[in-house]
Design a protein that fits this description.
two-stranded antiparallel sheet; 16-stranded mixed β-sheet; mainly beta
Protein backbone atom coordinates (compact mmCIF):
# COMPACT_ATOMS: atom_id res chain seq x y z
CA UNK A 1 0.00 0.00 0.00
CA UNK A 2 1.43 3.36 -1.02
CA UNK A 3 1.40 6.19 1.49
CA UNK A 4 0.62 9.24 -0.67
CA UNK A 5 0.75 11.63 2.31
CA UNK A 6 4.53 11.36 2.64
CA UNK A 7 6.79 12.86 -0.01
CA UNK A 8 10.55 12.84 -0.50
CA UNK A 9 11.90 15.27 -3.12
CA UNK A 10 8.41 15.51 -4.55
CA UNK A 11 8.05 11.75 -4.97
CA UNK A 12 5.34 9.76 -3.19
CA UNK A 13 6.87 6.97 -1.10
CA UNK A 14 5.35 3.97 0.57
CA UNK A 15 6.54 1.67 3.31
CA UNK A 16 9.00 -0.20 1.10
CA UNK A 17 8.57 0.84 -2.50
CA UNK A 18 8.90 3.99 -4.54
CA UNK A 19 6.17 5.36 -6.77
CA UNK A 20 7.85 7.23 -9.62
CA UNK A 21 5.92 10.04 -11.35
CA UNK A 22 5.04 9.05 -14.90
CA UNK A 23 5.18 5.35 -14.04
CA UNK A 24 2.59 2.81 -12.97
CA UNK A 25 2.93 -0.88 -12.21
CA UNK A 26 2.80 -1.33 -15.98
CA UNK A 27 5.95 0.77 -16.44
CA UNK A 28 6.51 4.19 -17.98
CA UNK A 29 3.59 5.60 -19.93
CA UNK A 30 5.29 6.47 -23.20
CA UNK A 31 3.59 8.62 -25.81
CA UNK A 32 4.22 5.96 -28.42
CA UNK A 33 4.41 2.63 -26.66
CA UNK A 34 5.14 0.68 -29.83
CA UNK A 35 6.73 1.75 -33.08
CA UNK A 36 6.82 -0.33 -36.22
CA UNK A 37 10.17 0.60 -37.72
CA UNK A 38 12.96 -0.40 -40.03
CA UNK A 39 15.59 -1.87 -37.72
CA UNK A 40 19.23 -2.47 -38.58
CA UNK A 41 20.70 -1.41 -35.24
CA UNK A 42 23.46 -3.38 -33.54
CA UNK A 43 24.14 -6.89 -34.80
CA UNK A 44 20.85 -7.75 -36.47
CA UNK A 45 22.38 -7.85 -39.92
CA UNK A 46 19.70 -7.56 -42.57
CA UNK A 47 17.24 -4.72 -42.16
CA UNK A 48 13.88 -6.10 -41.07
CA UNK A 49 10.55 -4.94 -39.76
CA UNK A 50 10.42 -5.12 -35.99
CA UNK A 51 7.98 -3.89 -33.38
CA UNK A 52 9.90 -2.33 -30.50
CA UNK A 53 8.84 -0.87 -27.18
CA UNK A 54 11.17 2.10 -27.56
CA UNK A 55 14.00 3.01 -29.89
CA UNK A 56 17.40 1.77 -28.74
CA UNK A 57 16.07 -0.36 -25.87
CA UNK A 58 18.61 -2.84 -24.51
CA UNK A 59 15.77 -5.37 -24.34
CA UNK A 60 15.79 -5.45 -28.15
CA UNK A 61 19.54 -5.97 -28.58
CA UNK A 62 20.14 -9.02 -30.72
CA UNK A 63 21.91 -12.08 -29.29
CA UNK A 64 22.44 -15.51 -30.80
CA UNK A 65 24.88 -18.04 -32.22
CA UNK A 66 24.39 -17.47 -35.95
CA UNK A 67 27.40 -15.64 -37.36
CA UNK A 68 25.35 -14.52 -40.37
CA UNK A 69 23.35 -12.27 -38.05
CA UNK A 70 26.54 -10.48 -36.95
CA UNK A 71 28.19 -9.10 -40.11
CA UNK A 72 31.50 -7.28 -40.07
CA UNK A 73 30.84 -3.95 -38.32
CA UNK A 74 31.55 -0.69 -40.11
CA UNK A 75 31.70 1.61 -37.08
CA UNK A 76 28.33 3.24 -37.62
CA UNK A 77 26.55 0.74 -35.36
CA UNK A 78 25.83 1.86 -31.82
CA UNK A 79 27.56 -1.26 -30.52
CA UNK A 80 30.80 -0.44 -32.35
CA UNK A 81 30.98 3.33 -32.77
CA UNK A 82 33.54 3.78 -29.99
CA UNK A 83 35.73 0.83 -30.99
CA UNK A 84 38.93 0.88 -33.17
CA UNK A 85 37.78 -1.61 -35.80
CA UNK A 86 41.03 -1.69 -37.75
CA UNK A 87 42.92 -2.78 -34.67
CA UNK A 88 40.20 -5.31 -33.83
CA UNK A 89 40.31 -6.91 -37.29
CA UNK A 90 42.37 -9.82 -35.95
CA UNK A 91 39.56 -10.91 -33.62
CA UNK A 92 36.59 -10.07 -35.88
CA UNK A 93 37.62 -12.22 -38.85
CA UNK A 94 36.10 -15.69 -39.17
CA UNK A 95 39.24 -17.63 -38.28
CA UNK A 96 39.90 -20.67 -36.10
CA UNK A 97 42.60 -20.82 -33.48
CA UNK A 98 45.98 -20.82 -35.19
CA UNK A 99 47.79 -24.18 -35.06
CA UNK A 100 44.91 -25.69 -33.07
CA UNK A 101 45.74 -28.92 -31.27
CA UNK A 102 49.51 -28.48 -31.54
CA UNK A 103 52.24 -27.16 -29.29
CA UNK A 104 52.29 -24.01 -31.42
CA UNK A 105 48.86 -22.75 -30.36
CA UNK A 106 49.17 -18.99 -29.66
CA UNK A 107 47.52 -19.15 -26.22
CA UNK A 108 48.39 -21.44 -23.32
CA UNK A 109 45.92 -22.32 -20.54
CA UNK A 110 46.87 -23.51 -17.07
CA UNK A 111 44.41 -24.26 -14.25
CA UNK A 112 45.26 -24.53 -10.57
CA UNK A 113 42.40 -25.57 -8.30
CA UNK A 114 41.68 -27.29 -4.96
CA UNK A 115 41.00 -31.04 -5.07
CA UNK A 116 37.25 -30.62 -4.66
CA UNK A 117 36.98 -28.85 -8.02
CA UNK A 118 36.07 -30.90 -11.09
CA UNK A 119 37.83 -29.94 -14.33
CA UNK A 120 36.67 -31.25 -17.70
CA UNK A 121 35.53 -30.08 -21.15
CA UNK A 122 32.17 -29.50 -22.84
CA UNK A 123 31.11 -29.76 -26.47
CA UNK A 124 28.81 -27.09 -27.90
CA UNK A 125 25.68 -29.15 -27.20
CA UNK A 126 26.61 -30.18 -23.65
CA UNK A 127 24.94 -28.27 -20.82
CA UNK A 128 25.63 -26.04 -19.01
CA UNK A 129 27.62 -24.68 -21.96
CA UNK A 130 25.61 -22.10 -23.94
CA UNK A 131 22.83 -22.03 -21.35
CA UNK A 132 24.00 -18.78 -19.74
CA UNK A 133 26.07 -16.93 -22.33
CA UNK A 134 24.27 -15.59 -25.38
CA UNK A 135 26.76 -13.93 -27.78
CA UNK A 136 25.99 -10.22 -28.10
CA UNK A 137 28.50 -9.30 -30.80
CA UNK A 138 30.52 -10.81 -33.62
CA UNK A 139 33.60 -11.51 -31.51
CA UNK A 140 31.62 -13.55 -28.97
CA UNK A 141 29.97 -15.62 -31.71
CA UNK A 142 33.36 -16.38 -33.21
CA UNK A 143 34.83 -17.42 -29.86
CA UNK A 144 31.99 -19.91 -29.43
CA UNK A 145 32.08 -21.15 -33.02
CA UNK A 146 35.81 -21.82 -33.01
CA UNK A 147 36.06 -23.47 -29.58
CA UNK A 148 35.26 -27.16 -29.98
CA UNK A 149 35.99 -28.12 -26.36
CA UNK A 150 35.13 -25.54 -23.72
CA UNK A 151 37.04 -25.64 -20.45
CA UNK A 152 34.54 -26.62 -17.72
CA UNK A 153 35.33 -25.92 -14.06
CA UNK A 154 32.73 -27.11 -11.56
CA UNK A 155 32.57 -26.45 -7.82
CA UNK A 156 30.35 -29.06 -6.13
CA UNK A 157 27.32 -28.15 -4.05
CA UNK A 158 28.07 -27.11 -0.44
CA UNK A 159 31.82 -26.89 -1.11
CA UNK A 160 33.58 -23.88 0.44
CA UNK A 161 36.97 -23.39 -1.19
CA UNK A 162 39.77 -21.98 0.94
CA UNK A 163 41.93 -21.30 -2.14
CA UNK A 164 41.18 -19.53 -5.39
CA UNK A 165 40.62 -21.37 -8.65
CA UNK A 166 43.38 -19.84 -10.80
CA UNK A 167 43.16 -19.84 -14.60
CA UNK A 168 46.28 -18.50 -16.34
CA UNK A 169 45.73 -17.48 -19.96
CA UNK A 170 49.05 -16.65 -21.61
CA UNK A 171 49.54 -15.43 -25.17
CA UNK A 172 52.79 -16.75 -26.64
CA UNK A 173 52.42 -15.82 -30.33
CA UNK A 174 51.90 -12.12 -31.03
CA UNK A 175 49.48 -11.44 -33.87
CA UNK A 176 48.10 -15.00 -34.02
CA UNK A 177 44.50 -15.86 -33.22
CA UNK A 178 43.31 -17.74 -30.15
CA UNK A 179 39.65 -18.55 -29.34
CA UNK A 180 38.39 -19.73 -25.97
CA UNK A 181 35.18 -20.58 -24.16
CA UNK A 182 35.27 -21.19 -20.41
CA UNK A 183 32.35 -22.38 -18.27
CA UNK A 184 32.43 -21.83 -14.50
CA UNK A 185 29.73 -23.45 -12.38
CA UNK A 186 29.28 -23.07 -8.63
CA UNK A 187 26.88 -25.56 -7.06
CA UNK A 188 24.13 -24.83 -4.55
CA UNK A 189 25.38 -23.19 -1.32
CA UNK A 190 29.00 -23.33 -2.48
CA UNK A 191 31.63 -20.63 -2.03
CA UNK A 192 34.41 -19.97 -4.54
CA UNK A 193 36.71 -17.35 -6.02
CA UNK A 194 37.82 -17.67 -9.65
CA UNK A 195 40.84 -15.68 -10.90
CA UNK A 196 41.43 -15.37 -14.64
CA UNK A 197 44.77 -13.77 -15.46
CA UNK A 198 45.58 -12.74 -19.04
CA UNK A 199 49.24 -12.14 -19.94
CA UNK A 200 51.56 -12.18 -22.92
CA UNK A 201 50.75 -11.42 -26.57
CA UNK A 202 48.09 -12.77 -28.95
CA UNK A 203 44.86 -11.87 -30.73
CA UNK A 204 42.44 -13.38 -28.23
CA UNK A 205 38.68 -13.99 -28.28
CA UNK A 206 37.55 -15.24 -24.88
CA UNK A 207 34.06 -16.09 -23.66
CA UNK A 208 33.35 -16.89 -20.01
CA UNK A 209 29.97 -18.05 -18.73
CA UNK A 210 29.28 -18.34 -15.03
CA UNK A 211 26.43 -20.28 -13.44
CA UNK A 212 25.91 -19.35 -9.80
CA UNK A 213 23.77 -21.88 -7.91
CA UNK A 214 21.12 -21.01 -5.34
CA UNK A 215 22.65 -19.72 -2.13
CA UNK A 216 26.17 -19.70 -3.57
CA UNK A 217 28.79 -17.01 -2.93
CA UNK A 218 30.97 -16.47 -6.01
CA UNK A 219 33.67 -13.99 -7.01
CA UNK A 220 35.16 -13.81 -10.51
CA UNK A 221 38.28 -11.67 -10.89
CA UNK A 222 39.47 -11.02 -14.44
CA UNK A 223 42.93 -9.47 -14.77
CA UNK A 224 44.03 -8.08 -18.14
CA UNK A 225 47.80 -7.72 -17.82
CA UNK A 226 48.62 -8.22 -21.50
CA UNK A 227 51.73 -7.00 -23.28
CA UNK A 228 51.44 -3.78 -25.25
CA UNK A 229 50.78 -5.57 -28.57
CA UNK A 230 47.93 -7.83 -27.42
CA UNK A 231 44.33 -7.59 -28.72
CA UNK A 232 41.55 -8.95 -26.50
CA UNK A 233 37.81 -9.18 -27.12
CA UNK A 234 35.72 -10.96 -24.51
CA UNK A 235 32.24 -11.53 -23.15
CA UNK A 236 31.56 -12.64 -19.56
CA UNK A 237 27.97 -13.65 -18.74
CA UNK A 238 26.61 -14.83 -15.39
CA UNK A 239 23.28 -16.16 -14.17
CA UNK A 240 22.78 -15.66 -10.44
CA UNK A 241 20.60 -18.08 -8.49
CA UNK A 242 18.10 -17.56 -5.69
CA UNK A 243 19.56 -15.87 -2.58
CA UNK A 244 23.02 -16.06 -4.13
CA UNK A 245 25.84 -13.52 -4.00
CA UNK A 246 27.94 -12.72 -7.07
CA UNK A 247 30.81 -10.31 -7.62
CA UNK A 248 32.74 -9.68 -10.85
CA UNK A 249 35.89 -7.55 -10.77
CA UNK A 250 37.65 -6.56 -14.00
CA UNK A 251 41.12 -4.98 -13.83
CA UNK A 252 42.58 -3.87 -17.18
CA UNK A 253 46.09 -2.47 -17.30
CA UNK A 254 47.69 -4.06 -20.37
CA UNK A 255 46.94 -4.66 -24.02
CA UNK A 256 46.86 -2.44 -27.09
CA UNK A 257 43.09 -2.94 -27.37
CA UNK A 258 40.83 -4.60 -24.80
CA UNK A 259 37.06 -4.75 -25.35
CA UNK A 260 35.27 -6.59 -22.56
CA UNK A 261 31.51 -7.13 -22.25
CA UNK A 262 30.46 -8.10 -18.71
CA UNK A 263 26.83 -9.03 -18.08
CA UNK A 264 24.60 -10.76 -15.58
CA UNK A 265 20.97 -11.70 -15.06
CA UNK A 266 19.04 -13.52 -12.34
CA UNK A 267 17.55 -17.01 -12.13
CA UNK A 268 15.27 -16.21 -9.16
CA UNK A 269 14.64 -13.75 -6.32
CA UNK A 270 16.76 -12.66 -3.38
CA UNK A 271 20.16 -12.36 -5.09
CA UNK A 272 22.85 -9.70 -4.74
CA UNK A 273 25.14 -9.06 -7.70
CA UNK A 274 27.97 -6.57 -8.16
CA UNK A 275 30.35 -5.53 -10.94
CA UNK A 276 33.51 -3.54 -10.28
CA UNK A 277 36.14 -2.38 -12.72
CA UNK A 278 39.51 -0.63 -12.73
CA UNK A 279 41.43 0.44 -15.82
CA UNK A 280 44.54 2.54 -16.47
CA UNK A 281 45.24 3.57 -20.07
CA UNK A 282 48.58 4.83 -21.38
CA UNK A 283 49.56 6.30 -24.76
CA UNK A 284 48.20 4.23 -27.65
CA UNK A 285 45.97 2.03 -25.50
CA UNK A 286 42.22 1.60 -26.06
CA UNK A 287 40.48 0.01 -23.06
CA UNK A 288 36.74 -0.51 -23.47
CA UNK A 289 34.33 -1.97 -20.92
CA UNK A 290 30.63 -2.60 -21.45
CA UNK A 291 28.36 -3.75 -18.64
CA UNK A 292 24.76 -4.97 -18.71
CA UNK A 293 22.62 -5.73 -15.67
CA UNK A 294 19.40 -7.50 -16.66
CA UNK A 295 16.89 -7.31 -13.80
CA UNK A 296 14.59 -9.98 -15.18
CA UNK A 297 13.14 -11.29 -11.89
CA UNK A 298 11.75 -9.54 -8.77
CA UNK A 299 13.43 -8.51 -5.53
CA UNK A 300 17.10 -8.54 -6.49
CA UNK A 301 19.84 -5.96 -6.00
CA UNK A 302 22.74 -4.84 -8.16
CA UNK A 303 25.62 -2.42 -7.93
CA UNK A 304 28.10 -1.40 -10.65
CA UNK A 305 31.17 0.77 -10.10
CA UNK A 306 33.96 1.27 -12.65
CA UNK A 307 36.89 3.65 -12.20
CA UNK A 308 39.59 4.58 -14.67
CA UNK A 309 42.67 6.73 -15.09
CA UNK A 310 44.24 7.91 -18.34
CA UNK A 311 47.61 9.40 -19.20
CA UNK A 312 49.50 10.10 -22.42
CA UNK A 313 48.69 11.15 -25.96
CA UNK A 314 45.90 9.06 -27.55
CA UNK A 315 45.14 7.11 -24.37
CA UNK A 316 41.48 6.14 -24.74
CA UNK A 317 38.91 4.50 -22.47
CA UNK A 318 35.26 3.67 -23.04
CA UNK A 319 32.66 2.60 -20.51
CA UNK A 320 29.08 1.81 -21.58
CA UNK A 321 26.79 0.79 -18.72
CA UNK A 322 23.30 -0.62 -19.30
CA UNK A 323 20.76 -1.48 -16.61
CA UNK A 324 17.39 -2.88 -17.65
CA UNK A 325 14.64 -3.30 -15.06
CA UNK A 326 11.97 -5.40 -16.71
CA UNK A 327 8.24 -5.30 -16.05
CA UNK A 328 8.44 -8.43 -13.89
CA UNK A 329 11.31 -7.10 -11.74
CA UNK A 330 9.33 -5.44 -8.95
CA UNK A 331 11.29 -4.67 -5.79
CA UNK A 332 14.55 -4.07 -7.67
CA UNK A 333 17.31 -2.01 -6.08
CA UNK A 334 20.00 -0.99 -8.59
CA UNK A 335 22.77 1.57 -9.04
CA UNK A 336 25.60 2.08 -11.53
CA UNK A 337 28.44 4.58 -11.59
CA UNK A 338 31.54 5.34 -13.65
CA UNK A 339 34.35 7.76 -12.71
CA UNK A 340 37.37 8.75 -14.82
CA UNK A 341 40.48 10.71 -13.91
CA UNK A 342 42.33 12.32 -16.84
CA UNK A 343 45.98 12.89 -15.90
CA UNK A 344 47.43 14.45 -19.07
CA UNK A 345 46.43 16.30 -22.21
CA UNK A 346 45.60 14.17 -25.23
CA UNK A 347 43.74 11.47 -23.30
CA UNK A 348 40.03 10.85 -23.83
CA UNK A 349 37.41 9.03 -21.77
CA UNK A 350 33.91 8.23 -23.05
CA UNK A 351 31.31 7.29 -20.47
CA UNK A 352 27.67 6.44 -21.24
CA UNK A 353 25.39 5.19 -18.42
CA UNK A 354 21.97 3.92 -19.51
CA UNK A 355 19.00 3.04 -17.31
CA UNK A 356 15.71 1.56 -18.56
CA UNK A 357 12.78 0.95 -16.20
CA UNK A 358 9.68 -0.96 -17.28
CA UNK A 359 8.00 -1.01 -13.86
CA UNK A 360 7.55 1.77 -11.32
CA UNK A 361 7.29 -0.59 -8.35
CA UNK A 362 10.94 -0.68 -7.30
CA UNK A 363 13.06 -0.04 -4.24
CA UNK A 364 15.36 2.32 -6.12
CA UNK A 365 17.46 2.83 -9.24
CA UNK A 366 20.03 5.35 -10.32
CA UNK A 367 23.15 6.00 -12.36
CA UNK A 368 26.00 8.50 -12.48
CA UNK A 369 29.09 9.34 -14.51
CA UNK A 370 31.94 11.82 -14.04
CA UNK A 371 35.14 12.58 -15.92
CA UNK A 372 37.65 15.23 -14.88
CA UNK A 373 41.18 16.22 -13.96
CA UNK A 374 42.84 16.40 -10.56
CA UNK A 375 41.03 18.15 -7.78
CA UNK A 376 43.43 21.02 -7.23
CA UNK A 377 42.17 21.38 -3.67
CA UNK A 378 43.42 17.89 -2.87
CA UNK A 379 46.83 18.69 -4.35
CA UNK A 380 47.03 21.98 -2.48
CA UNK A 381 46.14 20.28 0.81
CA UNK A 382 48.93 17.71 0.42
CA UNK A 383 51.54 20.13 -0.93
CA UNK A 384 50.80 22.59 1.88
CA UNK A 385 51.94 19.88 4.26
CA UNK A 386 55.33 19.51 2.61
CA UNK A 387 54.56 16.70 0.14
CA UNK A 388 56.18 17.26 -3.30
CA UNK A 389 53.76 17.70 -6.19
CA UNK A 390 54.66 14.43 -7.98
CA UNK A 391 54.17 12.42 -4.78
CA UNK A 392 50.94 14.27 -4.04
CA UNK A 393 49.60 13.36 -7.49
CA UNK A 394 50.45 9.71 -6.94
CA UNK A 395 48.65 9.73 -3.59
CA UNK A 396 45.51 11.20 -5.17
CA UNK A 397 45.47 8.60 -7.98
CA UNK A 398 46.13 5.71 -5.62
CA UNK A 399 43.33 6.86 -3.35
CA UNK A 400 40.98 7.21 -6.30
CA UNK A 401 41.59 3.68 -7.64
CA UNK A 402 42.17 1.84 -4.37
CA UNK A 403 38.43 1.53 -3.75
CA UNK A 404 38.22 -1.02 -6.57
CA UNK A 405 41.33 -2.94 -5.56
CA UNK A 406 39.87 -3.43 -2.09
CA UNK A 407 36.86 -5.18 -3.63
CA UNK A 408 39.08 -8.06 -4.75
CA UNK A 409 39.60 -9.31 -1.18
CA UNK A 410 42.56 -11.48 -2.16
CA UNK A 411 45.57 -9.98 -0.32
CA UNK A 412 48.31 -11.21 -2.67
CA UNK A 413 46.44 -9.90 -5.71
CA UNK A 414 45.76 -6.56 -4.08
CA UNK A 415 49.45 -6.15 -3.28
CA UNK A 416 50.61 -6.99 -6.81
CA UNK A 417 48.05 -4.64 -8.35
CA UNK A 418 49.23 -1.82 -6.12
CA UNK A 419 52.72 -2.40 -7.53
CA UNK A 420 51.33 -2.34 -11.08
CA UNK A 421 49.66 1.00 -10.41
CA UNK A 422 52.94 2.40 -9.07
CA UNK A 423 54.62 1.40 -12.34
CA UNK A 424 51.83 2.97 -14.39
CA UNK A 425 52.17 6.26 -12.53
CA UNK A 426 55.92 6.33 -13.12
CA UNK A 427 55.53 6.13 -16.91
CA UNK A 428 54.61 9.81 -17.26
CA UNK A 429 56.04 10.93 -13.94
CA UNK A 430 52.62 11.24 -12.27
Amino acid sequence: MTNTEEKVAGVDVGERRISIPGFTEEGEQLAAAKVDTEHSHGGLGETQRKTVASAGSRANRHTGFDLAEFPQPNGREEEWRFSPLKKLAGVLSDEPTANAGTEDEPVDYQVKAPEAVVISTLKADQAPRNTVLQPADRAAVLATKHTEDALYIQVPADAELDEQVKIDITGIKAGLRGNAHIVLEAGVNSKATFVLEHRGSANFNGNVEIKVGDGADVKVISLQRWNDDAIHAGQHDAEVGRDASYKHVAVTLGGEVVRLNTNFRYAAEGAEAEMYGLYFADSGQHLEHRTFVDHNTPNNTSNVLYKGALQGESARTVWIGDVLIRKAAEGTDSYEKNENLVLTDGARADSVPNLEIETGVIEGAGHASSTGRFDENHLFYLMARGIPEDIARQLVVRGFLNEIIQKIEVPELEESLQEDLENELKIHGN
